[in-house]
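Record 1 of the preview.
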Amino acid sequence: MTDPHDSENRTYPGDPNTPPRAPSREETSARLRREAEARLPTSDAPAPPALAPEEAERLIHELQVHQIELELQNDELLRTQEALETARSRYFDLYDLAPIGYLTLTEEGMIREANLAAATLLETPRVGLVGRPLTRFILPEDQDILYGCRHRLRATREPQSCELRLRKTQGIGRWIRVDSCLEPHRMGNQGHWRATLSDITASKEGEQRLLDAQARLKRVAGIADVGFLEWNPRTGTVLLQPAVHSSTSDAQDAAAPQTLDAWLARLHPEDREAVRTAFARFATDGEAPHEIHYRQHSEKGDYLWFAAYLEPIMDDRGRLDRVLIVHQDVTQRKESEERALHLVQHDPLTGLPGRSLLAPMAAQMLAGAGRAGKRLAVLFVDLDRFKAINDDFGHAVGDEVLRQTAQRLRASFRADDLVARLGGDEFVIVLANIRDEDDAATAAGTAVAALSRPYPVAEQELTCLPSIGISLYPDDAATIDALIKCADLAMYHAKQVSPGQFQFATAALERQSRAVAALKDGLREAMSHNGFRLLYQPALDLRSGAVIGVEALLRWPQADGSEIAPLVFLPIAESIGLIHDLGAWVLREVLRQHRAWLTEGLPPIAVTVNVSARQFRHQSFLQRITDALHDGGVDPALVSLALGEATLLQDTSTSRRLLDKLHALGVRVALDDFGLGSSCLGEIKDLPLDALEINRTLVQGLDDGARAPTIVETIVRLGHALQIKVTAIGVETEAELGAVRDLGCDRAQGFYLGKPMTGDELADWYRRRLPAPGSDPPPPLGSPP
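->
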């Protein structure tokens, strides 16, 4: 192999001979002198006459100057020749060693010159390329492509490009890109031309693999009935993939980028902002919601439900580049779920929302009114003489009266008001966005007038006068249950005064206002003067009988020796913002007591602390927990926080983030009072929980043999399936203890096993249960304390 940088060994394109070595300056001078002497003419003419000394001296001077000029010119010529040789050498280095093939061809397409890259690409030595047509190396079915490219080159005199395949050698076919142009000095004659050859095999194979992958993806998408979109958060564009679901108008614009606003315009107006917010939130933190639901306009003009799953596409630096959106038509599933939910939540007789739907819908309206700072009214309606009609004329007639009552109530109120049936002849109406009592009174008067008209049933006209009670938010109560209770009391007052009228819950307002004000003042006083105390109730392992932990219970003792229950004062503490300081005090006191138990020689005891919804959602919650654990010096694994269903499921994505951070601190989390709410099991399984605590109402209902045992058994199976310990709360009898043990509960807590005790009382109780060396084992589980 020759050295391409050795000018004596280089083979130039189109010239099989090695070019002569550049002569040195001395060799050139000697050669020129010989040639000059050879050309010097001989003459027989007589010698010129002798010159005068002055003339000879001048002539010698001129000859010397001329000689120097010639020498300078010779030096310049030599430097120019050396520079030319250097440039020529560099040109051939670039020409030969370039990674792209270079060819010079005749007008007929015969190869005149080729560099090393071209020879390598065409797999033929350079000497074997010269004089051969380029088409000799092109796949026959692609030769017309080259002819067409050359024809365009001649016709337009503009550079032309084409892609074609080389003939296969050793079973390998390569793709090349040919870029051609006319030789500049032959432009007018449309003669010889030049071409570059680039190997694009890898690019072509990549394109084919991409096409194959897209084809497979399209087939899979067709089978799975899903579609794809790509959203670029930086540019705000949405790319609709060809495999998108064909039942939407998106299919018409497949592979056509469009703005996010243009795509959102195809969604249902009620869903657009929610989807925009979900996209922005995902692009910001890459977290939930990973799944969203929305309605999209279809080709038929209606709206279809879609479930969309968001997945990040990262760039090579690990930053979010695009968001892949896989969506599926779930219209049939949504309709089935809505029908099933409607049957469960609505009264089958009247079609109105039932008791189970009233609470969440009213709570949502109440929350909206609270956020907007608006008022809300609750009307409790009861029909006088309905029981007599039902008894005298039969249930069919009574049912028809109820159906007509529901129709009249729906017609009497606005579309955004809630009309529900509690049961029997009792109805509840929640009025949204009222300005004052006059609005509520006007609405109640309309309902009284509508329901006081005779009911045409079974060829008769029956009369049922309504009695209506009215409560106002936030005047009378802060929760929907309390508002319904106030309205119920007002309804009974109206019934007693005069049927067919309505009454406001004014007396309840005064009593509640005075009671709440007193509680607020008392809470602030107790907080500033250490007026609270903690009791500790043990929890036992149902298999071994060992103490596995205690629950800290907050108490507010009064001067007369009584206590105000947490259910009464904790909501008030939340309403005045005292719950955060109170919760911090509880945790500090629990950790102080824990250190005291360790100092007294007791084994480490796991302690459970209850946390309210407002504490959990407060921005300082995690920092308060972190600071307390740092200052308390207690192993975080011995601290468990108990949170209610409503607290955790109000916003599962936020809950999941907070629970993950608590676990990072080492703290355990228990789901408290489980079993009575409307929890979605799918949401619970996604939460990182350590324990489930069964509501005491279910435990106390085990003796009556109703639905409670089935519910408890289901909860236990759920917990074990999720590898979560299940604790039965509120065990007060031996029968309840046996029942929860038989149903598979892992732990139990209640008065039958151990009453709430002070820190010192618990220490004494615990010591009695600890076996001393050589002593009898602890009393069997179930022995009353």
